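Posting for a labmate who doesn't have an account.
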Amino acid sequence: MSTSIAFLGCGSMNEAIMAGLLASGVPADRVVATVRTAERAHLLAERYGVRVGATTSADAAAGGANARAVAGAGLVVLGVKPAQVAELAAEISAGLAPDAVVVSVAGAVPLGRIERALRPGQPVVRAMPNTPTRLGHGVTAIAAGSQASADQVRAVRDLFATVGLVVEVTEKQLDAVGAVSGSGPAYVFYLAEAMAAAGERLGLPADLARLLAARTVAGAGHMLDGAPDSPDPADLRRAVTSPHGSTERAIAVFAERDLPAIVAAGAAAAVARTEEISRELE
């Protein structure tokens, strides 16, 4: 990656992306970030050796940390809350190089809304990373705006490849992606909670039940991710499910209660809520 990068708003997700980028070998002097407080700025500067500015009211009077951060940057990653994305885009618009790519990691904010807040022709890409990004095992979906070239999209892809798998989708697919990989870690954690609770009801100590559930879910995830041919989850499930055995009996109960339909309904509800948020932002 040959361009300098600015992370505007450096909460847990943007920090994870920045950490992955630096770990991949990008020099710290090519990375700049902004945060809301001087304390957070000092912490990140000490931790990563990058330049970090605080967007305090006093700083705004002096020109603004965000404006300074984007000067000369080729990639600008907006890591603020959805309701703040358009305002931040408008704030930095005048200071962006014409070919600087603005990347939003905020869910529910359409490309068109971001593009309208910027100067005409500014390239924009939406990205949807998930929380395992923090460990370098994330999944990020990216969707290009109307002005982003193939090379610019490739630069965004290279950025997120430092923290996991990257897939390219259309913007219309992003809400569905969010319902699967974006919200998906919460579904898995919820399953681990349920498994631990079941263990307790069967007589296991709470700490042991939680440990068994967590390590089992983590191990199963490694099996899904471990083979180069990306095994079908159904094949792995069948390999564990001996005919007429105890696992088969448990799976039969899940099927009888239509677990797939429950998951599908939850994912549909997640998409519906994302669409609601998009309308509220408009």
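Reply:
Got it, the structure tokens are right above this. The first strand starts at residue 5 and ends at 8.
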